[in-house]
Amino acid sequence: LVASGGTYLGSRFFFPPKEEPRPQGSLVAVQRGNITRIVSATGFLSCQASGEVKFSKHGRIKEIVGQEGDYVKEGQILAKLEDEKERLSLLQAENALKEAESELESARLSSPKNVVEKKERQLRERELELKLKRKDLEDTVLKAPFSGMVSKIHVERGEIVSGEAVSASKAILRLIDTGRLFAEVAVDEVDIAQLRVEQKAQVTIDAYPDEIFSGKVVYIAPETTTSQGLVVVGVKIELEKADPRLKPGFTASADI
């Protein structure tokens, strides 16, 4: 027993056990971060403003300025009506005003007070009539109510149009404002609690599937709607840049 014990002690002294290799690794500092969740939805592109542009009076089309696809600025002339009658009426109103001014001047020199007052009333009437005739002439010119693109022209030169409220087919043209474009998407009700205005989004367009357009949430509808049996909430995303290739109505998908 002694011998065997000495042999064991000697082997432990001269041949110590090998140390196990320590696991290799690296140390990193713990940092607080955000967990990102993506909410996806589909919809379509829309523009800031659009509308059918009409004359406020009836008449015959004298000129259509420009063509479909043209970009116009606010106040730019779009079309004109024949205006010979309006110009003649304006000239007659100007002559009538001059005559009323002359009569009033003469009355102030030699006529009694009641005559002068009558001439003053007549002058005011002529001034009002002149103002109306000028407006009537101005209404023969159709100007762009906002900057945008002429997407459709409904009439031709020589066509008679009405100044009353008419259907879209009788409007002069359709104007769309493509300076600001939006993706209007329908978000499932279960995801809407995750969304806030100003959140960033990435939008893809079916017409250009290989490109991503950046944007941000600018509007969340206050009430729900039903789409294909699902309860959804409308969300509007404004694109950072208005690409002229993008057209209102294009199918769009968004990751918010």
TrEMBL record:
SUPFAM superfamilies: HlyD-like secretion proteins
Keywords on record: Coiled coil
Residues of the CusB-like beta-barrel domain: 183-254
Coiled coil: 81-140
Record localization: Cell envelope
Molecular functions per Gene Ontology: transmembrane transporter activity
UniProt xrefs under Gene3D superfamilies: 2.40.30.170, 2.40.50.100
Cellular component aspect of the GO annotation: cell envelope; membrane
Domain CzcB-like barrel-sandwich hybrid: 58-165
Major place of residence: other
NCBIfam families attached to this UniProt entry: RND_mfp (TIGR01730)
Protein name: RND efflux pump membrane fusion protein barrel-sandwich domain-containing protein
Naturally occurring in which organism (per UniProt): marine sediment metagenome
